[in-house]
Task: inverse folding
């Protein structure tokens, strides 16, 4: 079979899989739409890959009134024609699969919170999808999608922006890309991923400047130091209550110190200075430098 024929078959299979998922979500979303009648807000994540968003999403999903899917790509599915109840059902489904099928493990890390509500809900008040890096790039090209999302779901849109030292984030992205090449002679593309990082920072800065949607800046390093306190603040941002058992159970899975990946690679001085100049342009990043 020639490559062109294989590509045609592959595209047909992807379209069939999407259509089947769309029809299933639409049908079951209508059947179970009463489950979403108390929804108060829809949550999205913006920012950068490898910044700690998955940890925050997993802890939120452990709350009895929150369901968060891990990288279902809500905005992409919105562009592909998903309607309200179909989208909400798909998010609930993927929240459940993350717990039941994947055991709350993602990219080699375990995010299971024992004794809490991951993959299920007592009463759904908040739903959302965790895909920060791709979401930022989608919004760079289609900024109107947030308004479209708000109109579709009919509730307030709230945004979580997890921030980690940019040098660590960029190094981790480059490190993961390097692992995939399996070529020991390949150098990490620190310049390329630095450029992509600040394209996402531009998107976040524009959203903050416009001020139309509330954004919660969650600093990864601060969260590691005080997960219970920051998580309580986040519950306030979402308009939800919480109990001490939930806070304590979530805090127990948080590692004790941030991983300073930047120190594992040699950053050229000129690149380090260029990245610092970019960091200093943004108030929400200006606390960071390479050495601290």
Result:
């Amino acid at each position: 079979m020639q490559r062109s024929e294989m590509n045609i078959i592959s595209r047909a299979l992807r379209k069939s899989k999407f259509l089947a998922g769309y029809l299933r979500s639409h049908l079951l979303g209508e059947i179970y739409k009463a489950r979403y009648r108390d929804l108060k807000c829809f949550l999205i994540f913006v920012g950068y890959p490898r910044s700690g968003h998955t940890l925050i999403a997993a802890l939120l999903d452990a709350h009895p009134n929150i369901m968060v899917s891990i990288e279902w790509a809500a905005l992409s599915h919105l562009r592909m024609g998903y309607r309200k109840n179909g989208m909400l059902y798909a998010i609930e489904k993927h929240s459940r699969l993350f717990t039941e099928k994947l055991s709350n493990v993602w990219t080699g890390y375990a995010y299971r919170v024992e004794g809490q509500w991951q993959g299920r809900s007592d009463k759904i008040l908040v739903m959302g999808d965790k895909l920060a890096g791709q979401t930022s790039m989608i919004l760079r090209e289609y900024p109107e999608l947030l308004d479209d999302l708000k109109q579709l779901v009919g509730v307030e849109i709230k945004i979580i922006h997890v921030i980690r030292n940019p040098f660590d984030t960029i190094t981790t992205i480059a490190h993961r890309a390097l692992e995939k090449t399996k070529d020991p002679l390949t150098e990490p593309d620190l310049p390329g991923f630095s450029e992509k990082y600040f394209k996402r920072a531009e998107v976040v800065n524009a959203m903050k400047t416009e001020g139309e949607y509330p954004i919660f800046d969650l600093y990864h390093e601060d969260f590691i130091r005080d997960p219970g306190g920051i998580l309580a603040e986040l519950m306030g941002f979402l308009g939800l209550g919480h109990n001490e058992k939930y806070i304590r159970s979530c805090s127990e899975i948080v590692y004790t110190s941030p991983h300073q990946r930047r120190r594992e690679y040699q950053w050229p001085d000129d690149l380090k200075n260029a990245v610092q100049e970019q960091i200093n342009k943004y108030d929400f990043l200006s606390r960071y430098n390479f050495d601290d």
Summary: Residues 32-164+227-260 form one domain. The two ends are 56 Å apart (CA to CA). DSSP finds twelve helices and seven strands in the chain.
